[in-house]
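Lab notebook, page 48
Experiment: co-folding of the full assembly
Goal: obtain a model of how the components sit together before planning crosslinking
Operator: M.T.
Materials (sequences as entered):
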Amino acid sequence: MTVGRFWSLLFLLVPVLGVAVFVFAVVPGGIFDNHWLPEDISQHGKVIDDLFMFILYLTGVIFIVTGALLFWFCWKYDAEKNPEPVKFSHGSHTLEIVWSILPAAILLFIAVFQMDAWAENKMAYPTKDDGKTKKPALALVTGRQFEWRIQYAGPDEKIGTEDDLHVVNDLHIPVNDEVVLRVQSQDVLHSFFLPNVRIKHDLVPGMQQHVWFQTKKTGTYDIVCAELCGWGHYKMRGRLIVESKDDFEVWYANAVQEQNRTSNNVDSDN
Amino acid sequence: MNTSSAASHGHGHGEGMSLNHFISTYVFSKDHKMIGLQFLFTTLLWFIVGGLLALGIRWQLAYPWSDMPIIGGRLFSAEGGQISPEFYTTLFTMHATVMIFFVIIPILAGAFGNYLIPLMIGADDMAFPTLNMLSYWFMWPAFVCIGISFLTPPYGAGGGWTSYPPLSAVRAAAPGSQMAQTWWLMGVTLVGISSMMGSVNYMTTIIQMRAPGLSMFRLPLTIWSMFITAVLQAFALPVLTAGGFMQILDRMLGTGFFLPEGLVVNNADMITGGGQPLLWQHLFWFYSHPAVYIMILPAMGMVSDILSCFARKPIFGYKPMVYSISGIAGLGFIVWGHHMFVSGMNPMLGMTFMVSTMMIALPSAVKVFNWLCTIWGGKVEFTTPMLFSLSFVSMFVIGGLSGIFMAATPVDIFIHDTYYIVAHFHYVLFCGTAMAVMGAIYFWFPKMFGRAMNETAGKWHFFLTFLFMNGTFYLMHILGAVGFPRRLADPYHYETFKHLLPMNRFITWCAVGMVTSQIIFAVNFFYSIFKGQKVGRNPWRSNTLEWFAPSPPVGHGNFDAQPIVYRGPYEYGSPEVDTDNYPQTEPPPEGVEPSDDGH
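Observation: model returned without errors.
Model output:
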């Protein structure tokens, strides 16, 4: 084996191993079991995951083709092995036009194709059943170094009134309902990241924003802070508890009772 | 060229060797070659620092909160040999700062830009030699500022290299946000001043001082990319400098450019603001996204030259290559918002930036196809510089394709701020640019020192680096697909990421292997300066003007004869001559009509 053969094969390893790693990750079981997109419990997540996979297949094809060509040209045109004279060429207008227009068309297609998913996620604010009035926020989520403060709007559906319920780090929501959350930050930037719901939104001091989503499965999931917020950034962990409507209401009633009891104690202390 | 040049005219032995002579030749030199070498040595030293900082990050991710072996007790005696969470934020802030501002940008523009521009255009020196000297020496106050920032007790700057306010702008927000953050801002601003002086000089030199016959479309692509990079720097940098000063004012004088009203940070006094944290992100990325191209374009240029030389064939599509460099630079100014898709920026704006970001993949794709076609039908010589350049193409494809995922806004919602991004930019900056830089060092080393680096050691260096870097960075895509976030000192207490520890351990040991492999390079580099095989003017049988000069080029003035240019830089394998190279300076043989570069 000549030196050139060895190096050509090394470059062939890139697409071969590169694709293998992704196959192991995507296919369940094996050494990379569970090393892929985490379980999706949201209604909208499938669109995002499908788009991810679509781009993965598309780029995968380009990755394999360019990798294979690089290998083949190194193998075939190795100076030690190739007796033919150099193909003296400065380029080709036709080829340049083909490989400009083709990728441009593909890229524009991806760009247009995903616009709906983006709009759905960030621009189509949910409405009530009447289709006109805006759906009120279930709770206000405030990021602060290094915890999540959650303030439920309560029966009057208004945040900042007497009947609000205050919780730290545990966000209970009813399953299947379209949930709107108002998000803000008290101090520095944070990012409200729900890996299993495919939601991420930066909390910007001075701005009140909204996120909305619908879940389809009960369980306890992570709330992750995804924007550097200081030395304790790593421990700014919350829990998303998705419950059946009944469980949610039971929990809510208990939590309100608990809150009233403690605040009454505080009052009687004074 | 100017009065001081006589002092450095290479008669530096015997009685001519005085202290003044030493200082003007090796310290405050105005010779572009010496300044280039100063940049090269300095940035390579910082490369070691940046690499060791990365190992600190990797240690924590593989063995969280465990004692660092051997050096831990000495470094973190207060924490019993562990990395504290505060120090972890400093580690990744400093790793990025050092690698971006002290290694990648100055090694491309400062080291190779300085060394190669006058030589490759057939000039004696830069247009402004004194300004050139200052651009190097303005790096030193920056080194001092960042050094102080790193070492300020109790912890260095920890706001990330992006220095997002309010974390960076409010003193109470982080332990490192006391003076350390101010020193950091001043350091980065000084790097900007140095780059600005360089960029003015490069533009002027390339426009004004080309050798006779060297039209713009006969320039090597290295020079084209350096030229476009200089333009990018000149237009983007003032915005960062302005932003930097605004943040310093927010910190020092209580202005509120980036701070909204009613902020309570860490129970400190309420801040009277009225500003907007997103404003900083816009200003920062308006510079830092073009800066991403500042960090890759010169590498692309150098790789084009090396590929063509060792394929013994003209570069495929010279003009499309020039246009795509310009296209990347132009589009580079209107894509900064893709760093802010989930930042709370108006989602309508996100759509606009998504389309422009998708389109910037196009010129990059054109370049890749042209590189592949350059190798097609050639006679490939697998020298060390060629291996590094081939691997640049192979790796840049990965880094480019992974970019499409994050350009897709809905997908970015999930992968933003995860290791998918970390994988992406390390594939572009390390596996891409750093590999190209390595190739360029092996390629131009004979010109710099008159001796070649050892090829066997070079190939081992390449082989091990190539394996270990892929082991390090490739699996980060998989981590990112799980949603593994960046900048977390201990991600494993999240249920979602618990099981990723073994993969992180593997990555860490690959990173250790990668850093260790660089010892081969360091030994080869220093050994070859003194003991390497002596070579003549043109050991690679190349075409461009720098190979027309002696190795190393004579004193201050470079050429022993005036180069006159007859053709483009890539006429390898031309049917006009019998040799497989056809230097730009070689007059056409009798009876042959001068070609019009074949374009």
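Interpretation: Chain B has one domain: 26-259+277-548.
Next step: discuss with group before ordering constructs.
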